Amino acid sequence: MVDSTVQRCGLVALVGRPNVGKSTLLNHLVGQKVSITSRKPQTTRQRILGIKTSGAAQMVFVDTPGFHQGIDKAINRAMNRTISSVVGDVDLILFLTDRLHLLPEDEVLLQNCFRSRCPVFLVINKTDALGDKQALLPFIDDISKRYDFAEVVPVSALRKHNTAQLEQSIIKRLPENPWLFDEDQLTDRNARYLAAEFVREKITRQMGDEVPYEVAVEIEEFREEAGIYHISAVILVEKESQKRMLIGEKGSRMKLIGMEARRDMERMFDCQVMLKLWVKVKSGWSDDERALRSLGYDD
Ligand code: GDP
Ligand code: MG
Asked: Which of these, 252, 251, 217, lies nearest to 237 by C-alpha position?
């Protein structure tokens, strides 16, 4: 039994061919439609897909970009090292398949999985659609001889069969670590904060040393309409000269900042984003309590 009083937290990678049911499983495990997620601070290598806190355990589900590239691209050692360092950062890998034989792509992905030293689960999804359930056992037998899976878990993500057991197995493998995220991480307030962070990040990237670090971003509007996020943000600067610099020639700089920030938001929120940005000179904003509050600095 897992000690239910000790905080556990780990990164769980979901790996598998397109269409095997990764998103379906994720949405079910996380318990809500995953549209708003946060990013683990200081990590750019993984994209966080969803967070589930259950009892004392926190599962951070991640996508591992680069992982899905074929091994043919990874012939040289440098590339292989990159892959193993990416998968090496996770605590557990869920390898999904939806049929009772492995395709060549599966084998490639599996070899990548086993480059890491973390446990790998074989999750056989879509068991509801299996014609012959008897075929499961020989398949499991055979594949277990070839790969050293920590566990093999047949599930139906769609019908929610055996997914609770899968969750329990995941929790058991999580290292004893303090949580990375607050329990209420998936909130709207958080999404606003993240949106502001994206804009701020792009400003820093665009401006380099020119950037006045007292630049602040205030989200004025954040609403969803017909699956599209409408986000308006004001960039607050201290001086007129900073405003001119930020806007750039005919607004070129602001356009670039907006484009890049929007792209990141769409990736993170997993939906279309209409982003409006403008720059306002507001000297002494840092003394303004309302501004501070809306910027998320109140706690
Ligand atoms: P992903 O590309 O790996 O993220 O796969 P998706 O989660 O988008 O699922 C691909 C398709 O498989 C969708 O049409 C799902 O409804 C379907 N699917 C996912 N899980 C199951 C399952 O357990 N049983 C069945 N019958 N279909 C499933
Ligand atoms: Mg998907």
From this structure: 217
